[in-house]
Design a protein that fits this description.
CATH architecture: 3-Layer(aba) Sandwich
Low-confidence stretches: none
Structural class: alpha/beta
Helix content: 40-55%
Bound molecules: ligand CA2
Number of strands: 5
Number of helices: 5
């Protein structure tokens, strides 16, 4: 099967508020800025992007399942579900696509409950605490992983 040149960008709960509150933690870029950055970066490698955000766990899971047929990798900031959601983790491991986990803030320098990620060990790429530019880093690293799998 040919590898689709498309990535899924998933932003989880509350990330629709980016740029409106807590700029000291999350910066001033909006979700639209994040989506544009990811589309631009992926475009440099000849990839298109399907971007979605939801505050509902089941909607995120349906989008991840759909990516199985249409995408070759997933960039995800699961928001607070990172620290709570076994079902999100199961969805990501179930589709068996390479995953890049992104966090805008440095979760390891914040409250202890943010130190554990259910997604961490199903993701091939981890970018933490680089701010919004971390999404571009995640795309670059994920494209490398996809290229490596295609060769192998
Ligand atoms: O640092 C990150 O990217 C997080 O995934 C963001 C989550 C948080 O629960 C994780 O521990 C770390 C929260 C997303 C909420 O985003 C907001 C943005 C602006 C204003 C309010 C919330």
């Amino acid at each position: 099967m040919t590898t689709p040149r498309r990535l899924l960008l998933v932003n989880g709960p509350n990330l629709n508020l980016l740029g409106t509150r807590e700029p000291e933690v999350y910066g001033t870029d909006t979700l639209a800025d994040v989506e544009a950055l990811v589309a631009r970066t992926a475009g440099e490698y000849g990839y298109e992007v399907t971007a979605m955000q939801s505050n509902h766990e089941g909607v995120l899971i349906d989008a991840i399942h759909a990516a199985r047929e249409t995408c070759s990798g997933i960039v995800i900031n699961p928001g607070g579900l990172t620290h709570t959601s076994v079902v999100l983790r199961d969805a990501l491991s179930g589709v068996a696509l390479p995953v890049a986990e992104v966090h805008i803030s440095d979760v390891y320098k914040r409250e202890e409950f943010r130190h554990h990620s259910y997604v961490r060990d199903v993701a091939a790429v981890h970018v933490v605490g680089e701010g919004v530019p971390g999404y571009a880093t995640a795309v670059r690293l994920l494209v490398d992983v996809i290229a490596g799998r295609a060769e192998g």
